[in-house]
Amino acid sequence: MTVHPYSRPRRLRKSEALRALVQENHLQATDFIVPLFFMEGENAKEEIPSMPGYYRYTIDLLIEEVASCFDLGLRSVLLFAKVPDELKDAKGSEALNPEGLMQRAIKALKKNCPEMCVMTDVALDPYSSDGHDGLVEDGEIVNDASVELLGEMALSHAQAGADIVAPSDMMDGRIGYIREVLEEQGFPNVGIMSYAVKYASCFYGPFRDALDSAPGFGDKKTYQMNPANAEEGLAECALDLQEGADILMVKPGMPYLDMVRLVKDKFKVPVAAYQVSGEFSMIHAAADKGWLNLEDAMLESAIGFKRAGADLIASYFAKDIARLLKS
Ligand code: PBG
């Protein structure tokens, strides 16, 4: 008996050559954004306990790390400063210091590797003694005063030389306000990658270890989105685009691939997916136990983002993947 004689999808899977010929999506190093953590000091790096093989660097070593990323074909980095505890206060004042750790790192990278696209995280949490992304008044994360501070913060990153600012705070109206400040202060070509669809997620845990930035009280549910919602994410995207965002981001990544696809289909702009710290750590943990093959898991998760419609992928695996693509 013949089963489905004419239609046999397996015909195109029969050899490596055929499979490659009909492959729909591909990874390249330039798709990736490398998140990088850095700290004060000299000639030191510290492994982040919950992120195996991932480090915080002092600026001198950060420069070397970025050069080695560039050599592997990577062209974009996203910067996160680990601010010393004694510099944190209720207003996150250190975020605006023109000679602060972030501002010095931006200048150093643009000087040493000018062709690397430098993106910066804009949110108050690593600078705030409350560990929240905005200003806290009477136990509440206030919106408009936070937005004004975030505007100043983005401006100070632009003045230091950032190519793209990436507000990750989820305050209302911040994209429009930041865009206005950048235009008025002479930075019309500094782009905005908006964390437009950012969920209140448990998968940020290891990142908060990396920066020692966990909220001092409560959680982030009054500003980050409810993981149960999809339509709301599209509404956030529409607002951010209207306000002047250049790139829309969905975060976390793997549990939210539906959002990547929805955003890509609806808005014809570049979409980024952020494979966050917890996603990196859980793949590592399973690999350490011998339950998953590390390289296969990182590549499969990455191609999943492309298939879902992501143009850009922020991932702690970026450098490993770039190395694999090169070999
Ligand atoms: C700061 C910020 C966070 C992440 C990126 N920017 C943490 C948070 O919102 O609590 C998470 C990144 C990751 O987990 O890899 N607002």
Quick overview:
With 327 residues, the protein is an alpha/beta fold. It has helices spanning 16-21, 59-71, 101-112, 144-160, 174-184, 205-211, 231-243, 257-266, 277-288, 294-308, 318-326, and strands at 32-39, 45-48, 51-58, 76-81, 117-122, 135-137, 140-142, 164-167, 191-198, 247-251, 271-275, 312-315.
Would you write up a description of this structure?
The protein has 327 residues and is an alpha/beta fold. Helices cover 38% and strands 20% of the residues. The chain contains eleven helices and twelve strands. The strands form two sheets. It has an eight-stranded parallel beta barrel, surrounded by eight helices. Strands 6-7 form a two-stranded antiparallel ribbon. The longest helix has 17 residues. The model has no long low-confidence stretch (mean pLDDT 97). Ligand PBG binds next to α6.
Characteristics:
alpha/beta, binds ligand PBG, 8-stranded parallel β-barrel, TIM Barrel, two-stranded antiparallel sheet, 327 residues
The kinds of small molecule bound in this structure are: ligand PBG
Number of helices: 11
Number of strands: 12
- Strand-residue fraction? 15-25%
Give the CA-based shape.
Answer: globular
| Proportion in helices | 25-40%
Reported by name, the CATH topology is TIM Barrel
Distance between the termini: 46 Å
Furnish the topology, listing elements before pairings.
Layout: H1 16-21, E1 32-39, E2 45-48, E3 51-58, H2 59-71, E4 76-81, H3 101-112, E5 117-122, E6 135-137, E7 140-142, H4 144-160, E8 164-167, H5 174-184, E9 191-198, H6 205-211, H7 231-243, E10 247-251, H8 257-266, E11 271-275, H9 277-288, H10 294-308, E12 312-315, H11 318-326
Parallel strand pairs: 1-3, 1-4, 1-12, 4-5, 5-8, 8-9, 9-10, 10-11, 11-12
Antiparallel strand pairs: 2-3, 6-7
Helix pairs in contact: 2-3, 3-4, 4-5, 5-7
The structure holds ligand PBG.
Ligand PBG binds next to α6.
